[in-house]
Amino acid sequence: MAVVADTLWAAMQGRKVLKVEWDDEGFEHLDSDRLQARMREDLDKPGKSALFEAAYQKAIKKIEVVYETPYQSHSCMEPLNCTAHVQDNSIEIWGPIQEANWIQADLSERMHVPIQNVTVHMTFLGGGFGRKAFPDYPYEAAVTRP
């Protein structure tokens, strides 16, 4: 949710009339205890490699221990955002990006611009946790026209 304006006053007035209604129906509402229980259940699911199992069975001494920490939400401190300057044969992107090379290659391919003409300026991140490595939001900024 955002208000975009030419002046602070216009932004403040826009914010005053903005009415947001969130609909979280269809989403699970899990507390920390249920999340911990699910993670423990997942430990019993198949998924260990045959190589691991073979090595484990051959081990002379086995120590089993469980380390746990409270559930921590991996929430970014800022929303996905990006600014793009697109010209006929070049693109410049500014944003909290985790992997500049992936973004550069993606924009080059999708926008049919030589890769050397795609410049990615990585700003500070307010947390990304892997999400800000994906190329969707820089691409959206590049194709959006005012």
Structural features, described:
The chain is α+β, with helices and mostly antiparallel strands. The chain has a domain of 61 residues: Aldehyde Oxidoreductase, domain 4 (2-Layer Sandwich), CATH 3.30.365.10. It is built from five helices and three strands. Helix 4 links the parallel strand 2 and strand 3. The radius of gyration is 23 Å and the shape is flat. The mean pLDDT is 90.
Secondary-structure element sequence? HHHEEHEH
Spatial extent as radius of gyration: 23 Å
CATH topology of the domain at 83-143: Aldehyde Oxidoreductase, domain 4
- Assign the CATH architecture of the domain at 83-143: 2-Layer Sandwich
CATH homology-level superfamily of the domain at 83-143: Aldehyde oxidase/xanthine dehydrogenase, molybdopterin binding domain
SS strand fraction: 5-15%
In short:
Helices cover 35% and strands 11% of the residues. The protein has 146 residues and is α+β, with helices and mostly antiparallel strands.
